[in-house]
Hints:
Blueprint: H1 11-22, H2 28-35, H3 39-51, E1 71-79, H4 84-92, E2 97-101, E3 109-115, H5 118-129, E4 134-142, H6 152-156
GO biological process, one term: response to amino acid
GO molecular function, one term: sequence-specific DNA binding
Keywords: DNA-binding, Transcription, Transcription regulation
Amino acid sequence: xxxxxxxxxxxxxxxxxxxxxxxxxxxxxxxxxxxxxxxxxxxxxxxxxxxxxxxxxxxxxxxxxxxxxxxxxxxxxxxxxxxxxxxxxxxxxxxxxxxxxxxxxxxxxxxxxxxxxxxxxxxxxxxxxxxxxxxxxxxxxxxxxxxxxxxxxxxxx
Length: 157
């Protein structure tokens, strides 16, 4: 989720978030030792991150393959614009839809989905297609991850 009102990161934020990126289970004491920051500063920053949605939920670290969903795909969705809310609500009820974005261009919504096998991907794609307001879908299966999700480089720029 993009929040354009979020304050920019300062050097303290970058040091703290880089340490958490290395080990998100690090205690406040360990973070203080690693970053050279006071524990009170760390507590304050961590609370601000939690309340401002700066940090994603911990579940984003889970590998879907470890949960039996070894196939990942994108499903491009064309929808009736008057039923956007209904379509989004329907997509939110499908557990295999792990992320939905609204891109610029001809695609109305782009869904990242996971599945157990090709037959399950077909089922998930059909479940998406049958959501209220969805007119058409196009599914592309990912063969492998070339560059995994990462944030470390952004923290260092």
